[in-house]
Design brief:
Structural class of chain A: alpha+beta
CATH class of the largest domain in chain A: Alpha Beta
CATH topology of the largest domain in chain A: Aminopeptidase
Low-confidence stretches of chain A: 1-10
Helix content of chain A: 25-40%
Radius of gyration of chain A: 24 Å
Distance between the termini of chain A: 38 Å
Oligomer: homodimer
Shape of chain A: elongated
Number of helices of chain A: 12
C-alpha cells in the first residue's frame, strides 16, 4: 500500500507525517551497512558513524539543533521550546541484524519531530529526538542510553571492549568523538520519552493486530548452573563409579523445566539456551557441564518464584546426585519496568484512533533503551508487528503499512503529550 | 619394591625376565616425548620415529631381526624358528598421553622375547614381538594393526589426515618409511598373539587384584542424535510457540538414561559425552541440538537391546515432541571380540601362579590392537591395574610391582603357548 505524500492525520491530529518521506529515509538509513536483506552496522563502526552524520544533516534540515556526545549518541533539539518530549531509539545493529531493529524508531522520531515543526504546532512543549548508541552490546549493553541516564560507571567505559578485543575508548577515538563531552539526562527539559519499535516476537503477527501498546518491559534474570564431576574413559569406567557432570546437568534441566511449566503464569518465559560440556568428547565421561537458565516476565513475584525454584533444585541436586557438584551464579538481574500509566493511556488512545480494534496491550519481552529512561521521566512504547516474529536476522521485516501506522499513532500520541504534559 | 636383577621365575617357568632391565627400558622409551609425568609422542612424529629406531636397536641387540613397514609398525622376528607367537602393543601416545598406554606392552614384548632367547628354550615355536603404529588414531583408528590385518583400504590411507590437516602419506614420507612395503599378517608363522596393557579403568585398582585376564574386548556402538527446531528470541517468544531443540534433546537424554538403567546388565556402559547446541546463546531459543550416545559391552544381545531402545525413543520423540524434528545416524559399530578360550586359560593359569588369588577375569572396555588380531589367530590379553583408574592423562601410572608381575605372568603364558601351541 503506497501512502499519499502528506497523509491526512487521524481525526484530531495536526501533525501530518509524510509516509513517503518516512519510508525513503528508512531505506537510506538501511543503506549504511546493508548486506543483502540485512544490515551490519555495529556501534561505532564506520557505517554507524556515517549513518549518524547523515542523520545529523536530516535533523539540521528540519531546523533542529544536532549534537553528538562522546559515546556516539546523536540528539536533535527543538530550539523553539524550553521543554520537550523526547522520541527515539537506537541506530546500531546486531552483528548480523535486521533493517528495522532500532532504526525504525530512529527514523520515526526524525519524521515526527520534523512534521511537528512543519505543522507549527502551538504546543506547550516541543519534540526532540535521539539516536542511541550501542544498544546491541557491541561494547556494553545499552551503552548509549545507560550513559545518558548516569548508569555507566567510568571504570566500565574504560574496561569495555568488544568480542574481538577492540576497546571502546579506541573506537570512540577512531570515530572522532573523543573530544566530545558525555551527555546526561535533562529531566528539566524532557517531560516524557516515547519509543516505537518492532515487536521482535510473533504475538502481533499471529493475532492480526497492527499495533502493540507496551505496558511494561519485562524483568529478566539469568543464572549459570555448573556441574563438576570427573572425566573418565567411556568404555572402562563402570556406571556406578562415574561422576558424570553432563548427565547431572541433563537431569537437572529436565526437572527444572517440569517445575517451571507447573509454576508459570501466562506471561513468563524461560530458556536454557547455552550448554557447555567438558571435554565434550563421545568417549569421555563429562568432567564438567554448564547450562544457562534465563527467565523473563512482567511480574516481579513470578520472577522471584522462578528464582526460588531454581535454588531449591540446586540444593536438592547437591544432596541427591552425590558425587557431582552443583553450583549457581547470577548473570543478569533486570527488574520489570512498567511504562507510565498516563503516557500509556495516551498511546492507547492513539492506537485506537489509528487502528481501531486492531491493537492490544502487551509487555515487551526484549529490553529497550526505554527501560533506562522510564525511571527518569514518564515513558511509553509502541510496537508494530514483526513478520513471522523474526528479528536479529537478515529476514527481519514489517509491512510498510504497519510501519506507517506506527509512525502515525506515535505522532498522535506525541501531539497529545506535547499539548497536555507540562 | 625393587625386583632382583634376574628374578626367579614363578614355579615352572624357564623364561627369567629381568625386572630392572624391563623398567630401565620402559623409562628410556618414556623419554621419547616426555612432558612432565606424561608423554607426547603422536604417531609418526619425530619422537615416535626416534623411539622406533631405539626399539629396533634393542631388538637387534637381542638377536632378533628388526623390520619396519610403511605405516610405521616395527617387527622383531626370531630367526631360529619357522613359527612364533607374537607379543606386542602400540608405541604411539594420545595427544597428551600417559607413559604406559601401549608402551608398557611394547617393552614387555621386548623383554619376554629377549629373555626367551637368553633362556635358549627348546620350544616348538619362537617369540616375535611388535610395536604397532597409530593405535591412538592420529591418522586413523588402529592404523598399524588394521593395516597388518588387511583392514585398511588404500583409499582410507590416501585420504587419512590428522586434525591439523597433516596427511598420512606426507607423514610416512617425512618419517622415511615411504619406500618400505606394507606388511600383512602371517598366520602361517604366527600361532597366537598376546598383549599386555594397562586396564585404563578402576576395576583392578579398587578391587586390589593385581592382574586382569581379559575375556573379551567389548563391542561398541555410537550414534549421533540430532534435533531440529527454530531459533527465536528468548524474551519475546511465548512458550507455546517455541520449537526448542535443546529442550527436546534434554528430555530425550533424560528418558534414554532411565530406560538404559532399567535394561542394563552388569557389564554394559553407556555415555552421552558430546553435546552441541546451536546457536548456543543464553538469549536465543535453540534451533538445533546434537548429542552422542555411545554404549559398550561384551554381550551382543545387550548391545542390540540398547540400540532398539534408542531407536524406539527416537520414533516416539518424532511423534510426541511435535514441532521439533529428531533424527539419528550411526557413528561406530564394533562387534564384541572374544579372546581365544585356550589362550585365555593359559593366561589365567599364569596369573594364578604369579599373583595367587589376586587376579580376575574381566572384559576390556577399551579397544586394542588385539581385537583385529583375534579373528586371524588365537589371541589373549592381560591387564595390570591403573592407579585411580586414570588413563589418557599425564597422571596415568601403575605400581612398578604390578608392571613386573604383568611381565612375569605374560612370560609364563608365552612360555606355555610356545611349548604347547603348534
Amino acid at each position: 500500500m503506497t501512502a499519499p505524500a502528506a497523509a491526512p492525520p487521524a481525526a484530531g491530529g495536526a501533525i501530518r507525517i509524510n509516509a513517503e518521506r518516512l519510508m525513503a529515509d528508512m531505506r537510506t538509513f538501511r543503506s549504511f551497512g546493508a548486506d543483502g536483506t540485512g544490515v551490519v552496522r555495529r556501534a561505532l563502526s564506520a557505517f554507524d558513524v556515517q549513518s549518524r552524520e547523515w542523520l545529523a544533516d536530516r535533523y539540521r534540515e528540519a531546523g533542529l539543533v544536532a549534537t553528538f556526545d562522546r559515546v556516539g549518541n546523536v540528539f536533535a533539539h527543538d530550539p523553539r521550546h524550553a521543554r520537550a518530549l523526547l522520541i527515539g531509539s537506537h541506530g546500531d545493529t546486531q552483528p548480523r541484524g535486521g533493517w528495522l531493529d532500532g532504526a525504525m524508531g530512529v527514523i520515526i522520531g526524525l519524521e515526527i519531530a520534523r512534521a511537528a515543526r512543519e505543522a507549527a504546532l502551538d504546543t506547550a512543549i516541543g519534540i526532540d529526538t535521539v539516536c542511541w548508541s550501542d544498544e546491541e552490546a557491541r561494547f556494553a549493553h545499552f551503552l548509549g542510553s545507560r550513559a545518558y541516564c548516569g548508569l555507566l560507571p567510568d571504570d566500565e567505559i574504560a574496561a569495555a571492549a568488544d568480542d574481538a578485543g577492540v576497546r571502546l575508548t579506541d573506537a570512540i577515538a577512531e570515530a572522532g568523538y573523543a573530544d566530545l563531552p558525555p551527555r546526561g539526562a535533562d529531566p528539566a527539559r524532557h517531560a516524557a520519552y516515547l519509543e516505537a519499535h518492532i515487536e521482535q516476537g510473533p504475538v502481533l503477527d499471529r493475532s492480526g493486530d497492527q499495533l502493540g501498546v507496551v505496558t511494561a518491559i519485562v524483568g529478566a534474570r539469568e543464572f549459570l548452573v555448573s556441574f563438576s564431576g570427573e572425566a573418565n574413559h567411556a568404555g572402562t569406567t563402570p556406571m556406578a563409579l562415574r561422576k558424570d557432570a553432563g548427565l547431572a546437568m541433563i537431569r537437572f534441566a529436565a526437572a527444572l523445566d517440569t517445575r517451571y511449566a507447573d509454576a508459570a503464569d501466562d506471561a513468563i518465559v524461560w530458556t536454557m539456551g547455552r550448554i557447555e560440556i567438558a571435554p565434550n568428547a563421545p568417549s569421555i565421561v563429562p568432567a564438567g557441564a554448564t547450562i544457562s537458565v534465563q527467565f523473563r516476565g512482567p511480574d516481579l513475584a513470578m520472577l522471584d518464584r522462578f528464582e526460588t525454584e531454581l535454588m531449591r533444585l540446586v540444593l536438592e541436586t547437591g544432596k541427591n546426585d552425590g558425587p557431582v557438584g552443583c553450583t549457581v551464579r547470577q548473570i543478569l538481574d533486570y527488574r520489570p519496568t512498567p511504562m507510565d500509566k498516563a503516557v500509556t493511556a495516551i498511546v492507547a488512545r492513539a492506537a485506537e484512533r489509528t487502528a481501531p480494534g486492531r491493537w492490544r496491550r502487551m509487555p515487551s519481552g526484549a529490553g529497550h533503551d526505554a527501560q533506562f529512561m522510564a525511571p527518569l521521566m514518564p515513558t511509553g512504547m509502541l510496537f508494530v508487528p514483526s513478520i513471522g516474529g523474526i528479528s536479529h536476522s537478515f529476514d527481519e521485516d514489517t509491512a510498510e503499512a504497519d510501519i506507517v501506522a506506527g509512525c502515525r499513532a506515535l505522532a498522535l500520541a506525541a501531539e497529545e503529550v506535547a499539548t497536555r504534559f507540562v
